[in-house]
Amino acid sequence: xxxxxxxxxxxxxxxxxxxxxxxxxxxxxxxxxxxxxxxxxxxxxxxxxxxxxxxxxxxxxxxxxxxxxxxxxxxxxxxxxxxxxxxxxxxxxxxxxxxxxxxxxxxxxxxxxxxxxxxxxxxxxxxxxxxxxxxxxxxxxxxxxxxxxxxxxxxxxxxxxxxxxxxxxxxxxxxxxxxxxxxxxxxxxxxxxxxxxxx
Length: 199
Fold this sequence. Notes:
- The chain is an all-alpha fold.
- It has two domains: 10-133, no CATH class; 140-170, no CATH class.
- It has helices spanning 10-19, 42-57, 63-80, 85-105, 113-118, 121-128, 140-147, 156-170.
- The longest helix has 21 residues, at 85-105.
- It is extended.
- The relative contact order is 0.07.
- The chain crosses the membrane at residues 48-75.
- Keywords: Membrane, Transmembrane, Transmembrane helix.
């Protein structure tokens, strides 16, 4: 069951998002309409919530939804990289308020596990640090490596174990003792050790 978009009209906002110029290290392209924001990749949503959402989205929302979005954006921004424990406490209060008001701003359908999970973000930030430093897909780079070990759709775990063992046996890691490139002999009368001599 998909909720209706809180946007009055998505077309002007879509044009603004597509025209936005980001730094070279932020490779985010908005292909899907804002009316289909539930189909966005995480990086698209992250950019909107953390950096450009408040000034860009607010004019396109009703006053009630806009104020609710600002609560959320502020809380997530504080939890993203908190500098003090007080920021985490403030973010927790903002999230509590956000979750408390969500069914009033939208309707009862918004009360899902994902909304409830937001209540635990402040605890996570206190235990593990800011959200910027905890990554949900930390093993994503390993998936491609493991995926290459399986062929077909049967006995995948056995295939992965077999090919990994075979690779480990056939390609042992070589260890070479590094050759010293520095000076390994100092003359006892050298000036560089004068400061260590007894006067």
